[in-house]
Design brief:
Two copies of one chain form a homodimer.
Chain A: E1 2-4, H1 13-19, H2 26-42, E2 47-52, E3 56-58, E4 65-69, H3 74-85, E5 89-95, E6 117-119, E7 148-150, H4 152-171, E8 174-179, H5 182-196, E9 203-207, E10 214-215, E11 232-239, H6 244-251, E12 256-263, H7 269-280, E13 284-289, E14 296-302, E15 308-311, E16 314-317, E17 321-327, H8 340-357
Parallel strand pairs in A: 2-5, 2-9, 5-8, 9-12, 12-13
Antiparallel strand pairs in A: 3-4, 6-7, 10-11, 13-14, 14-17, 15-16
Helix pairs in contact in A: 2-5, 3-8
Protein name (chains A, B): DNA/pantothenate metabolism flavoprotein
GO molecular function (chains A, B): catalytic activity
InterPro entries (chains A, B): CoaB-like_sf, DNA/pantothenate-metab_flavo_C
Chain lengths: ~350, ~350
């Protein structure tokens, strides 16, 4: 595998949206976001856009194969809960089927909810196992159905998750929007950002999604499944335009924007983060290393340009960027683990308040 | 994007396993399968290996990006339930986080289980919403916890799913093994197939997983995240060896083997399926078109070579391959939908019985 420059064009944000297809659901999704933001404005709430999960890059128009970015959506789903807890309204722009707030506590694989539900009914013996199956043309089970209860071991945890879940739904402070492809993500990010601009400084962006740096322009996609048996596969991808630039400078200049930088080589984390702030001029980059991201992150932010201080009478110019490390014990009790997102959100809320007052 | 032949080697199954790394969990996974098969032999059950979900092809050793194959795992998870209903023991070799038997009925996105759980407790007002959140250092809710019940609307369905789920777990006829990468899949398929060979003709293979045709040899992986901003990305992939060949001819010659062929162009479905039977000499190829796969499939199988018949006194040789179409109404009632997998499994069980008697 190599990085080469081939003949195809490089895309600016403008040329991207001019040449790549608008998703069919964009108009309806945008209307939903518009109404949600109106309701939150009337309630005088701050609104945060949380993006979460990985984007796909289809290799075929009838998609069988695609490039993906590693992300279960844990950071975004967990963070969304702490924003909600703090009274923020959350637009959760997430990869379809990635982890979601609240239900994330009950992954089908690691903690399947069927395991802690109990019924008061004799289990069928092996000879009659098919009678246990409800599917197809079997009649539905005779009513009254026995009550289903939650095992005492799980009830306290489920109760508190369920309580928070229902509280949020009663308040209407969580709005779900989903994407699959990087193209859907880019169109949605622009549309949602423009809607959020009416919130001015009360709009926050928490861009935790793992967005592909590369994509295949619609015009170069093969219509049908690529056939194997014709030798090896060669894929040439173009760069995805740097979307933070128009977000900061055009779509919502007043927004408080937090982006993420994930690296597998911790050495280049800080330089890459500073480079991003230099280039886009937003407020915070959260740097995290793939292997330590659950218990250590660093917040990089610009220091006010004019900020200087006297030291022993000499004028000493401060560094241009400040590092703020957040770390928790990597060994957490399984029954009540501390989540690093709690501390991340707490720090960001402080800074967002300063940002709002600074207007 | 194009299919080109570049300089790199092409892999046979042998050279693949000689050069690509064995997954660390393979030994433990194989032991688990070994014990499961022993138990099923004592119970004189037929055993089916159901593979399900898509395989990934990592582009980096520290995986940030990967190639994937489109598959939620619906076919495999649904089919596994019907095999279990018929009294088969099922080894469910699935992509981590893809759909699973039973829990598939409660996708977090389309049918989140939190929606049909009820608690007898007043919801916190917006002023006290943070008190509804259980996270971090808040004390766990005071006992006794209110009971949690299932809404009457959902109870009958959940009851029957839960009943089947518990019956299967009581019987111990479902064994879960998961993979993520195509490399893990290939190593597991070989190990499980060898273990299943002791079952002779009572072993069935239902290979519904969406396996990548291409991969990147370990030796060509870049260690760290590929950096963008260095022009466009070019990926050259090698072909995955045709694993059905050794499966049929070496690992378990007596097994009843059903493979799948997914195409987006229905025109080439039958020829591709016949080509696969021609090449590997197994029992059934299930052909399905991406857009109609939930309500129309075709079973292609070889016709006994010697089978000929008299027609008006003339000897007429039959076609080499038989097509058996299965189709259901594409509009199903949402409360009690017919699933095409029920008819697929019913037909396959008939054929497997003939296969067993044919020994």
């Amino acid at each position: 595998m190599s990085n080469t420059t081939h003949e195809s064009q490089t895309f600016s944000a403008e040329s991207y949206f001019e040449t790549q297809p608008q998703p069919p659901s964009l108009v309806a999704d945008t209307e939903g976001v518009h109404e949600f933001i109106q309701r939150q404005q009337q309630a005088n709430r701050s609104v945060v856009l949380v993006t979460s999960g990985g984007t796909t890059v289809p290799l075929e128009l009838n998609v069988v194969r695609f490039l993906d970015n590693f992300s279960a959506g844990t950071r975004g789903a967990t963070s969304a809960e702490y924003f909600l807890k703090a009274g923020y309204a959350v637009i959760f722009l997430h990869r379809q089927f990635s982890l979601q707030p609240f239900s994330r506590h009950y992954s089908h694989s690691t903690n399947p909810f069927l395991n802690f539900l109990e019924i008061d009914a004799a289990l069928p013996s092996s000879s009659t196992i098919d009678s246990a199956f409800p599917y197809s043309n079997d009649p539905p089970p005779t009513t009254p159905t026995p009550q289903i209860t939650v095992t005492t071991a799980e009830r306290a945890k489920l109760f508190s998750v369920l309580r928070a879940y229902k509280a949020v739904h009663a308040l209407g402070t969580l709005h779900m929007v989903s994407f699959v492809t990087v193209n859907e993500y880019l169109w949605l990010l622009r549309a949602v950002s423009r809607e959020m601009s009416v919130l001015g400084r009360k709009a926050m962006y928490y861009l935790a999604a793992a967005v592909s740096d590369f994509f295949l322009p619609q015009q170069r996609l093969s219509e049908h499944k690529i056939q194997s048996g014709k030798g090896n596969l060669s894929i040439e991808m173009d760069q995805v335009p740097k979307i933070l630039k128009p977000l900061v400078s055009e779509w919502n200049p007043e927004g408080f924007i937090v982006s993420f930088k994930l690296e597998t080589d911790e050495m280049i984390l800080i330089p890459k983060a500073q480079q991003a702030l230099e280039r886009y001029g937003h407020q915070v980059v959260i740097g995290n290393d793939l292997h330590h991201r659950k218990h250590r992150v660093v917040l990089i932010s610009p220091v006010a340009a004019d900020a200087t201080k006297k030291l022993d009478g000499a004028l000493v110019s401060q560094p241009k960027y400040a590092e703020f490390w957040i770390e928790i014990d990597s060994h957490q009790p399984s029954n009540h683990p501390k989540e690093i997102e709690e501390d991340i959100i707490e720090e960001l809320l402080k800074r967002h308040n300063v940002w709002i007052e600074g207007s």
